[in-house]
Task: structure prediction
Amino acid sequence: MKKPMRKVDQAKIRQRKHIAFRMNLLFFSIFILFSLLIFRLGYLQIVKGEDYTRLLERTEEIAVNTSVPRGRIYDRTGKVLVDNKPMNAITYTKTTSTTSREMLEIAEALSELIQQDTKRVTIGDKRDFWILLNPDEAAAKVSDKELKEIGKDGTVSKHDIQREVTRLTRERITDEELNSFTDHELEVLAIYREMMSGYAYSPQIIKSGNVTEEEFAAVSERLNEFEGVNTTTDWDRVKFSDSTILGTMTSPIEGIPRSHLDYYLARDYSRNDRIGRSYFEQYYEELLKGQKTIVKNVKDRTGRVIETKTVREGEPGRDLVLSMDSELQESLEKLISEKLLEMKKDPRSGLLDRAFLVMMDPNNGELLSLVGKRLVKDEDSGRWEVHDYAYGTFTSAYEVGSTIKVATVLAGYSEGVLSVGEVKIDEPMNIAGQNKRSLFNQHGRVAVDDVTALGRSSNVYMFKIAISIGKGVYRPYKALPIDIAGFDRLRNAYASFGLGVKTGIDLPGEFPGIPGTDTRSGKLLDFAIGQFDTYTPLQLVQYISTVANGGNRVAPKVLKEIREPSKDGETLGALLEETKVNILNRINNTQKEIEQVKKGMQYVYYGPNGTGRNIFNGAPYTAAGKTGTAQSYYYGDDRSKYGMASVNLTHVGFAPADNPEVAYAVVIPYASTDRGNYITQGIAMKEIVRTSLDTYFDLKEERAKTNASETTDQKIDRRFDREKEKETNEK
Result:
């Protein structure tokens, strides 16, 4: 009989079995886990192996823009006004993994091959460069105690701490340390700062324009030694006209102005891109800039570029053809310049400092010439020099005097206070002791109709129209109560011609003029003869064009055509688009009323008492126009003379009278300081008007004959002459 097991032994047996079970469970769990791990590894290697291999070797493509030639600008005859001149350039493209030390080494090597101007190096550049060259000394500028003090606030981020340390370090660099750089080190710094200024993978110009052939060749031969460095062709803008309305460009150094940076960066520009800064170059930036070459840099996971692919070839900007005639423009510029200097000799012309002449096709708004000249005294010689002020034709405004009277008569018709052919008595008027009269009739009573009133420039006729518009009643020697709404009615009527409002020209910066604010009744009368509000020369030509074409206010335009880029710069590319005629509004007058004022404008030149009679004696064409003078005050460039009394001379018209093809406006502000004597200046004005129209029609006739008789060989010779002229201008 077996001896019963003791309880202690039974407990040990149960414990061993439990341990064995737990060990088996543990080994089984380990087996399962290893099986899963082996299965997972097998899955990754066998099933997903190729995917992960591709992922490991994945490349990233980044678009990079490169520059292309800007579109050329031509005049209406095909003459180049603005072109591009190719020039050598050296560029650098950094990557996201490029270190400052690597760029410094490349800058050191380049400094041995090229000469770099150090004028653009700033104090800030020197501080950064000193820190880069002297890391240990720079680190010692901020003590450990200060560092702990900066970081004692646990809420301050590492970035903020580093920024504060950098600020303190820069501030503590002494002048002696900053001035310790050698000429060679400054040249290295000048190269380095250009390399640093661009974005990653975006080519940055290191040197352009003044790169010598030797420098270009030396760098080109060693491109494989300088990662990111390249030699290429850059473009410089070349102007063959002094007209300021063509505008200007920013330089490669300037790039995009800070004030416009966000706007252009949002349109895929690079920070260092050149853009149109003013007028035509600025207004038509989108057409002129062209389409950059788009390349893609293929880089590996370290950020190193391993391949460059061209995705889209660049295209030069569109060539733009202006409505302006450069030959006519140059002739009229010379005319205005000569007359300005001639008039300046008169002792009464002390305030005279500018003159304007605008010519426009009244039917389609094409500006044929936009001439503005300004006198500036040379400080060294003391002589007067003539500077271009073409943009002043639409950015400066003046009282224009009697040239406004055509609009006043038409306003009288449209407001229902005047009928075609109506006769009024021109007589001296006295309003509460203030005398107002016409220049041609100082004392008597003369019956004049609308045609004669325009031809003889009757102030009183216009006064009576204004009084009716203001719902007033004239009583000699009495006050003249009026409805001040008459100012608005007359101003709105003028605005329908383009006076006192923007003309819609395709150039930036247009000025609408300054409206008068005095609402006394006498000022309404002054308003009706052009001595209250101010208007630009461009507004005057739009206004008279509206009359010339039968009542349509057409927006003036500088751009005539958009063309494909020319292959040789001489032969125009294919026509892409011709700008449309933009009719802004139609005046509220009948054709009969418009024809009536045209008769008055013809009377000015051909009537027995016209204010512009004899101007066109013997001319092979007819014209219709209106003369004007305005008592004004000087507000030109010389502030010491502000507020001095002067006289503005103006003249508007169109030709031929029966079938207008050209409208013109001449404005000579501050022509005389003697309001009673401006004969010399008046003669000069008449000569300007006659000569400018003669020039226009002579050119037209000459070209018609040339086109009719020119042989193929002659056309080739003429093109050759233009090429030689272009080469001479470039030199």
Summary: The longest helix spans residues 7-47. The chain has a mean pLDDT of 88.
